[in-house]
């Protein structure tokens, strides 16, 4: 059997490096640059000490974060966890119990993980948010357990829905997220035109736009149901499109988290993929229609949005 490699989640790795390393290193380097070499001044000595401390801390955090986001290799004999400092080997014939998916508290957050109990009593906890293709590991472990990873559903053959495409999207422009997004964009552009320094501030403007898009676009997804697929698109990132085959969807959960302007759906498939999409685009009646159409496709849907809950990190 060929080896399967479970890769790091690069997006979350970059975010962790930005907040843990870039900001810390920037402060340290700024203090070192402001140090003029005169040790007779107490302020300069303080700057030097703090600057060296933050720079050293940024190097430590860089290595720590890279080590935390490990890689996994698995074949028919061994599960190998590869990190910077060490490589851990776990023989498959030593596996005693496998829990494919469970939601557990982890440093104050609810997280999704796979748990493996070894015959020697050691428990190996693998958290899905650290990896980009974690479902591949779960498929392998499911086969190892003898579980099925394919759906027994047949394709949807409802004659009334042949070639019918239903779009669930009211308007992101008049949603709370959309209004906030466009107010910030207008304020940014107004400031640019008022100052008249577009060329000199180009990179700051571009960075601000990227940050605004990243923050608010996550709440601007909408849904399309076709004969055989559930399609997720985004009102701002119009080029993005995720497609899930209806006969591969095991369950859809509808959630609303604390202080979330809209709602979120969690799509769980028979091949152990878990994807979450948030939307502030849909109004109440549209959510009801969306759920009704999902049920008509013989897909289980659970609505947990009546009570605000904590978000699970997948």
Q: Any key phrases for this structure?
A:
single chain; four-stranded mixed β-sheet; four-stranded antiparallel β-sheet; 6 helices; 314 residues; alpha+beta
Q: What's this, in brief?
A:
The protein is built from 6 helices and 16 strands. With 314 residues, it is α+β, with helices and mostly antiparallel strands.
Based on secondary structure, the structural category is alpha+beta
The number of E-state strands comes to: 16
Strand order of the largest sheet: 1-2-3-4
Q: Tell me the overall shape.
A: flat
Average residue pLDDT: 88
Q: What's the main sheet like?
A: 4 strands, antiparallel
Radius of gyration: 24 Å
Order of helices and strands: EHHEEEEEEHEHHEEEEEEHEE
H/I helix tally: 6
Fraction in beta strands = 25-35%
- Spans of at least 5 consecutive residues whose pLDDT stays below 50 are 155-161
Report how far the terminal alpha carbons are from each other: 28 Å
What percent of residues adopt helix (DSSP H or I)? 25-40%
Characterize the structure shown.
The protein has a 4-stranded antiparallel beta sheet, covered by helices on one side. Strands 5, 6, 7 and 16 form a 4-stranded mixed beta sheet that branches. A 4-stranded antiparallel beta sheet has the order 8-9-10-11, with helices on one face. The protein is built from 6 helices and 16 strands. The protein starts with a strand and ends with a strand. The chain has helices at about 10-35, 40-70, 135-145, 175-195, 200-215, 285-295, and strands at about 5, 70-75, 80, 85-90, 95-105, 110-120, 125, 165-170, 220-225, 230-235, 240-245, 250-255, 265-270, 275-280, 300-305, 310-314. It is flat and about 75 Å long. With about 325 residues, the protein is α+β, with helices and mostly antiparallel strands.
